[in-house]
Write a sequence for this structure.
């Protein structure tokens, strides 16, 4: 390696190491400031960290960093022997740590450290090392530990851990390896593409099985002719290829699943690492306002994807600063209300199914709803009487209740940014409070940002994706389900009126003609809900999520792009944005006039899975069928006898009466013996198919390769 490449490699290694040391220095200085009596315990760790930075900076030829660390060692060492640290001394120490962090950014962008904050602090550090009390520093801007912008080359946040002397390596023992986040992101993307390819292969395998069944049927119809031998040969070859493909599919599934799991594990970091630097930010805001604060992290050991943690950093920084600046009272005010002088800010994280709930809570004064309403009226906005709705005013841009503009409040910038950033993660944010006791902001975000299970819908001829986790339910609307209230349409539920709108109208897309039973998707975002009418519900699938890039970053109602198993792209919509937009839509015409309605064929549908039953019912009704949905075969048999049917769509495994038994009962019935029966089941073995067809089923569709088009085409052909 030549001299220049070696110097650059040493500098890159030093900068990567420096980030972790800055975290350690901040953490230990905060602990020392809160408990000076622990100086004998904490100072050695600080000195070890500074010594490590000093040695690494010497190797990287960063002489000013080396000098600053040496001087700070001389400042801190006397504290071990009983010297009491002053507030000004702590300010100097924290300023030096910030200057070291700034120096790292400058060096990463190949800037010289001449004229930097670090160089400006060297005279003060030298005086303090000689025992001269440091001057009271001017008020410094609040540090922004998670400022947006490009990360340092090759750098990723490192765990806040003290730097210990090198540990001897045992022969044969694995060495720890640091991998950059960019490389892990790329690896996860490849893993996701492999899973999509696997799903596509599975679809092709099912198509091959269907083709083999067609050849088998064709051979039976030409039995005894010259072409039977050829068809038999084709059938055997298709069976062989199908077996090989099934083996390859299983091997690929195991490999892709294992790779995906390993990559995800490699990307996981504890939640407490996502909170690194927030305690320092809270401390600096509190000091600037003459307050005291203690920050706690609950659920810090919960492992989360590093991309999610990275995306949550700025919203959490806003919320922590907001909690200190707006939530916590001055010490004397807290004492008057029976509280301790020191305020408390708690960050917590917990899993809720496939979602993560992150909360920032303080024990301050709570929200001033009347002030919020007053500011809203002053801006010509509606001031809700409902307290929960009024509390959400804090998320409006430009709305602030601060009496004056300061470095951290008063401009109305912050919480609207939090909401936008959280919604960009396909999440939502809610606020609750108790007057005089505190405020809690709750962020609800998905566990992973790379793959997602979505509901695909057709709107105006376009396929669009909605995250399944945000879909509350699917509906088939009838006129009795809909009410017009103050010029706006609502879906009627037993306990509420849910805003109802056409998704095509919200997205400014052309909509299809009115239908007798239009399909609607009920979306939820936090506590808010809305029902959106779509042209057709297509299917539910797992997709790969891709960013749309900066050029379309601000597209209304769009969160990302979804890569479908067949390679096509679909826009992934933002549920929170759609829910808000649906609430203000004018009345629309969803139903045809009596003349437009035609005679519809009746289908009895039976499946014991509510989700599958709802999806299939929606697909069939969107195609114009009158559907009677049943939870099991016994109910389907009763409904068939009571009202008849033009066709039956049945699951196989159901309580009371399964699909095979019901098919046999239908075929044995003089009245319904000729009614088509379509079995839709997860059983995909050849013997299961044979059993279903022998029982009299007209068609057999496997759920793993379920395609709405094939179901509708099968029914069309049978009817």
């Amino acid at each position: 390696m030549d001299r220049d490449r070696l110097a650059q490699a040493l500098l890159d290694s030093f900068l990567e190491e420096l980030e972790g040391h800055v975290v350690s220095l901040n953490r230990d200085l905060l602990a020392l400031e809160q408990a000076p009596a622990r100086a004998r315990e904490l100072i050695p760790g600080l000195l070890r960290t500074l010594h490590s930075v000093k040695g690494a900076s010497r190797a990287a030829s960063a002489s000013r960093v080396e000098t600053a660390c040496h001087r700070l060692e001389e400042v801190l060492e006397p504290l071990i022997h009983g010297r009491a640290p002053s507030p000004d001394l702590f300010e100097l120490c924290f300023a030096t740590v910030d200057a070291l962090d700034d120096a790292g950014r400058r060096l990463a962008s190949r800037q010289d450290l001449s004229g930097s904050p670090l160089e400006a602090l060297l005279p003060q550090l030298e005086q303090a090392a000689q025992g001269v009390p440091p001057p009271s520093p001017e008020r410094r801007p609040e540090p922004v530990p998670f400022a947006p912008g490009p990360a340092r080359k090759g750098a990723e946040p490192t765990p806040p851990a003290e730097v210990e002397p090198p540990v001897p390596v045992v022969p044969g023992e694995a060495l720890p390896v640091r991998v950059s986040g960019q490389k892990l992101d790329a690896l996860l993307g490849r893993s996701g593409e492999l899973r999509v390819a696997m799903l596509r292969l599975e679809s092709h395998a099912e198509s091959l099985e269907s083709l083999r069944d067609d050849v088998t049927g064709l051979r039976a119809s030409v039995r005894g002719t010259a072409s039977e031998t050829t068809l038999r040969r084709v059938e055997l070859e298709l069976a062989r290829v199908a077996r090989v493909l099934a083996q390859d599919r299983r091997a690929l599934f195991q490999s892709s699943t294992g790779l995906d799991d390993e990559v995800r594990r490699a990307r996981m970091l504890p939640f407490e690492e996502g909170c690194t630097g927030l305690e320092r930010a809270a401390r600096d805001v509190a000091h600037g306002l003459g307050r005291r604060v203690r920050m706690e992290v609950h659920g810090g050991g919960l492992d989360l994807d590093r991309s999610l943690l990275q995306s949550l950093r700025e919203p959490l920084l806003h919320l922590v600063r907001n909690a200190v600046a707006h939530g916590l009272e001055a010490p004397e005010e807290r004492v008057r209300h029976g509280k301790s002088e020191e305020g408390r800010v708690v960050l917590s994280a917990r899993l809720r199914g496939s979602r993560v709930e992150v909360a920032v809570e303080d024990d301050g004064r709570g929200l001033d709803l009347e002030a919020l309403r007053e500011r809203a009226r002053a801006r010509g906005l509606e001031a809700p009487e409902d307290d929960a709705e009024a509390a959400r005013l804090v998320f409006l841009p430009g709305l602030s209740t601060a009496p004056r503009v300061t470095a951290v409040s008063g401009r109305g910038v912050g919480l609207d940014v939090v909401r936008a950033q959280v919604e960009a993660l396909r999440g939502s944010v809610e606020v609750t409070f108790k007057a005089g006791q505190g405020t809690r902001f709750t962020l609800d975000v998905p566990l992973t940002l790379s793959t997602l299970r979505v509901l695909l819908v057709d709107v105006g001829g376009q396929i669009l994706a909605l995250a399944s986790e945000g879909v509350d339910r699917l509906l088939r609307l009838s006129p009795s389900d809909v009410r017009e209230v103050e010029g706006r349409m609502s879906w009627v539920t037993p306990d509420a009126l849910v805003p109802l709108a056409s998704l095509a109208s919200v997205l400014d897309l052309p909509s299809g003609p009115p239908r007798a039973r239009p399909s609607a998707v009920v979306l939820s975002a936090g506590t808010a809900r809305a029902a959106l009418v779509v042209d057709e519900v297509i299917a539910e699938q797992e997709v790969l999520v891709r960013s749309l890039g900066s050029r379309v970053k601000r597209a209304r109602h769009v969160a990302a792009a979804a890569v479908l198993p067949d390679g096509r792209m679909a826009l992934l919509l933002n549920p929170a944005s759609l829910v808000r937009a649906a609430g203000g839509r004018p009345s629309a015409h969803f139903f045809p006039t009596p003349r437009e309605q035609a005679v519809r064929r009746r289908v009895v549908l039976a499946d014991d899975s509510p989700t599958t039953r709802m999806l299939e019912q929606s697909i069939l009704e969107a195609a114009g069928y009158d559907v009677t949905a049943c939870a099991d075969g016994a109910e389907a048999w009763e409904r068939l006898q009571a009202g008849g049917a033009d066709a039956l769509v049945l699951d196989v495994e159901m309580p009371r009466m399964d699909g095979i038994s019901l098919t046999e009962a239908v075929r044995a019935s003089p009245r319904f013996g000729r009614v088509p029966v379509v079995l839709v089941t997860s059983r995909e073995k050849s013997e299961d198919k044979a059993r279903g067809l022998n029982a009299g089923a007209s068609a057999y569709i496997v759920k793993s390769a379920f395609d709405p088009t094939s179901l509708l085409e099968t029914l069309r052909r049978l009817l």
About this structure: The CA atoms of residues 456 and 539 lie 5 Å apart. The two ends are 75 Å apart (CA to CA).
